[in-house]
Amino acid sequence: MLRLLFALILLSVPATSVALEKKAPEEVDFGQLLGELNLTPEGTAPGELVVAMWLPPEFWAVNFIQDGGLSEREIEQTMEVFAGTSLLAVAQGAFTPSGVMEYLSRDEIAGSLRVSVYFADDSLKNVALTGDVSPELEEMLAAVGPGFAASVGEMGENLHMFVLNDAQDTGARLADPWERGSLVIDMISVSGDPVLLSLPFPLDALYWPRYCPNDMPAKASWNFCPWSGEPLPD
Questions:
Q1: How many CB atoms neighbour CB 170 within 10 A?
Q2: Which residues fall within 8 angstroms of residue 22, CB to CB, at 6 or more apart?
Q3: CA distances from 188 to 112, 114, 115, 181 (A)
Q4: Helices and strands of the chain, counted as H and E runs
Q5: Domain annotation covers residue 208
Q6: Residue 234 lies inside a defined structural domain of this protein
Q7: Using an 8 Å Cβ cutoff, are 36 and 76 in contact?
Q8: What is the pLDDT of residue 152?
C-alpha cells in the first residue's frame, strides 16, 4: 500500500537527524506543502520573471493519496517510476518594451541552471540535470506535465520540467526534505544578473510544529527560537 511506502520513507530518515513528529500523508496540509515548494527568487530585476517549483516524491505521494482518484496499486507503480529522481519546474522571462512577457526556451533556461544541496555539516553537492530518463518516466511526464502546467494558467505553457538525478552513489537521497539542509538553485536573469532560489529543509508541512517558550510555532528547519535564542528540542 502507498501508506506503507510513505511510512518506509519516514523510517528511512535516521533517528539522529531531526527528532520531530512526522505527519502521515493524509495529515499533510497540501496547500502548505505547495507554498513551501514554490521557490521565491532573489535578484530578479523589475519586469523580469523567475518561477520555480521543486517536486520531490513526497509531493506526488501526498497528492495521490489525498486525491483518491487512483488505486493504491496505481499509485505504487507511479511512485516507483519517480524513484531516485525529483523534478524542478521552471519558467523564466521578461517583459518586452511593448508590455508582452517573452519567455525563455527550455535550452536557454538550462544553460544557466545549477542545482546544489547544502547539508547540515555545511558540505555541498551538485545535483545533476539528467536527460537520460527511463521510458516509463518519459511517459509519466507526458501524462502529468500538461495537467500540472494547466494548473498555473497561461504561464504553464512556458513552464519547463527538469529531471534531477536525486540519488547519491550510496543510494541515499541528495535533496532530502526530511533532513536538515537546503536546496539551492542558481540561475542567470534575462538581464544577466545572478538569481538565487533556496529551500530550507526539513519542510514544515511534513512535520507537526514545535513551539517556542512564548508559544509561537517554530519552523522544522530552525535550530533556535528566534524570539529568545533558546535551542529548540529535536
A1: 6
A2: 10, 13, 178, 206, 207, 208
A3: 6, 10, 13, 23
A4: 6, 11
A5: yes
A6: no
A7: no
A8: 67
Residue range 97-150, pLDDT digits in tens: 898 989 999 999 999 999 999 998 989 999 999 877 888 888 888 877 777 667
Percentage of the residues of the chain whose pLDDT score is greater than 70: 88
The pLDDT tens digits of the residues spanning 2-15 come to 444 454 444 344 33
- Side chain identity at residue 163, one-letter code: V
224 inside domain: no
- Counting the structural domains of the chain, the total is 1
Count, residues in the chain: 234
C-alpha cell at 107: 535550452
CB-CB neighbours of 145 under 10 Å: 16
Helix, strand or coil for residue 67?
helix
pLDDT of residue 1: 46
- Give residue 141's domain range: 2-218
Whether 23 has a pLDDT exceeding 80, the answer reads yes
Residue pair 44/197 in contact by the 8 Å Cβ criterion: no
Please indicate, yes or no, if residue 121 is contained in any of the structural domains. yes
**DSSP for residue 171:** S
Helix (H) or strand (E) holding 201: strand 194-201
Residue that has been written with the C-alpha cell 533556461 in this structure: 109
Count the Cβ atoms, other than its own, within 10 Å of residue 202: 21
pTM as predicted: 0.83
